[in-house]
Each structure stands twice: as structure tokens, then as C-alpha cells.
Design a protein that fits this description.
Order of helices and strands: EEEEEE
Distance between the termini: 29 Å
Strand content: over 45%
CATH architecture: Single Sheet
Radius of gyration: 15 Å
Largest sheet: 4 strands, antiparallel
Shape: elongated
CATH superfamily: Ribosomal protein L33
Oligomer: single chain
Helix content: under 10%
Length: 66
């Protein structure tokens, strides 16, 4: 009964408004959350409004590649 691919996958959500500078390059997303999503029901990238302790407010956290 098992399918070829698992429906639930682990995704990483990264803050889109945080910016840190290092070696003449700006990297976004200091704070990250790890969650799961159903690949069948949500094929597009996930975006959730979560709390970021570096911004000290609720911001949009978007799904990133591993």
C-alpha cells in the first residue's frame, strides 16, 4: 500500500526581512523554522507569518531549498 514518494516532507522556513552583512555580501534570513507540509495538497512554496526574535516582530517566513 505504500506509495513511491512520501506525501509529507520536511521544509525549512526562513525570515524574509532579516538582513545580515558578512564579507561584502548580504545574506537574508537569520532565523529559521523547520516544519512539515503535504506535498500533494501544497505543491507551491510555503509562506507563513511567524515570529522572528531578531526582528522582534511577526514577519513572513518563506520556504527555502535544503
Amino acid at each position: 500500500m505504500a506509495g513511491g514518494k512520501e506525501n509529507r516532507v520536511r521544509v525549512i522556513l526562513e525570515c524574509t526581512s532579516c538582513v545580515r552583512t558578512s564579507v561584502n555580501k548580504k545574506l537574508t534570513g537569520i532565523f529559521r523554522y523547520i516544519t512539515q507540509k503535504n506535498r500533494h495538497n501544497t505543491p507551491s512554496r510555503l509562506e507563513l507569518r511567524k515570529f522572528c526574535p531578531y526582528c522582534y516582530k511577526h514577519t513572513i517566513h518563506g520556504e527555502i531549498k535544503k
